[in-house]
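Format notes (please read before filing issues)

Several people have asked whether sequences and structure tokens are stored in separate files. They are not. Every record keeps both together, in the order shown below: the sequence lines, then the token lines. Line labels are part of the format and must not be stripped during preprocessing.
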Amino acid sequence: MVYSLLTRIYPKKIREHYVKLFQYSKLKVDENTFFGFFLMLSLLFSIAFAFFISFLFQFKFIIVLILLFIIIQLTLYFGLSLKADYNARFIENVLPDALQLMTSNLRAGLTTDRAFLLSARPEFGTLSDEINEVGKKITLGKDLGDSLLEMSKHFKSDILKKTMLLITSGLKSGGELTELLEQTAKNLRQEKFLEDKIRTNVLMYVIFIFSAIAIGSPILFGLSSFLVEVLQTNLAQIEVPRTATLPISFSKVNLSSSFILTFSVVSLLTSSILGSLVLGLISKGKEKAGLKFLPILVALTLAIFFIVRFVLRLFIGGLFGL
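Then the structure lines:
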């Protein structure tokens, strides 16, 4: 009851969107309990870390609190969205086999409801439960087309919705169910084959972009930041006599090493975030699908960046007085 009240804190549109993503994710917990508990936990976490960060870095508490809370809520949103997309991709992969199995059952002489019920195999995962529900609805006298369309609304899959709509339209036009299911399964397999072929062709671009962000960028930033420190140290030690007239002049480097370090880290984090979105768009056709690359990119870029700086300082830093 308490969690249900906490869930109402969310604005109505955001709450409805969260609930829809939750249903697509097929999590085996009560949605009000989940969102209420997560909201309470995120508030406590944000308050605790906001106190710590504001005390340690002298930032404003309220700004840190709001930023942390927004980040946690975005993490929840993307987590549910990725889970929903994962379920959709799984359904799309097993759908041709499920339709083919229904076709075999119908050709064996089974009634439509029995053909659907016997097609609910455990290896089909969440689709098995939905097929089972469709079979029960048909047994109770509900229209097959309406049952299929209702099933398609339980997953965040355009392919599933279009497939069920195609089968329903074929049934209303007088088509035979067995032929419709068999031809649809065949078309889905051909489409999957083409998608895999396209994904193989763009793999080279994915590898190139990943390598450029995870390896090339941190190496260049590590070298450049070390060079700035070298220039700072050496130019500060050069003393030019006031009476000397030289064709060149030396001035103090106003950029601090801490600023360069912060700039490099922020640039690497930004390129990792944008690069992960580009990788998702190229490989899966959706930007958010690349978020799975983000932790790997961030870890690699920062690790290589600091390793490059450490190696340079260790081997040649002494030559420049660092």
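For reference, the curators noted about this record: The chain is about 75% helix and 0% strand. The mean pLDDT is 82.
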